[in-house]
């Protein structure tokens, strides 16, 4: 019993939070190994705050799929617009243009913003990752 209280219980106090955080991170679309940071006091609280306040990768993908299927709500369109803006900021022009085109084709409330962003992207056509125009979506 002495070994149990000296080693097993304290080990469980470290392992259980990591396993729980790992599962939560994976389900939200983040990388599971970030759960190891839950062992650092204070960082575990920060992880919960980030998960509560930040848009999850899984939610971003769901918004793109809903928009492609013409089932998007306004918050889905805004999510896709923000994603396009992030990609444009990072210099990933073709994926950003594709998202803008998707918004212009299937979106309702963000068409004007998507058009403006696409014009800004086309103004940066000299980037090495730009392959020219946007593909047509049906």
What does this structure look like?
- This protein has 138 residues and is mostly helical.
- The protein contains six helices and no strands.
- The longest helix has 26 residues, at 2-27.
- The chain is elongated and about 70 Å long.
- The termini are far apart.
- The relative contact order is 0.09.
- Residues 129-138 have low confidence and may be disordered.
Q: How many beta-strand segments?
A: 0
Helix content percent band: 55-70%
Number of helices: 6
Average predicted local confidence, pLDDT: 83
Main sheet attributes: strand count, strand direction, barrel closure: none
Low-confidence stretches: 129-138
Radius of gyration over alpha carbons?
21 Å
| Residues in β-strands, percent | under 5%
Spell out the helices and strands N to C: HHHHHH
Shape: elongated
Oligomer: single chain
Helix-strand makeup class: mainly alpha
- The first-to-last residue Cα distance is 68 Å
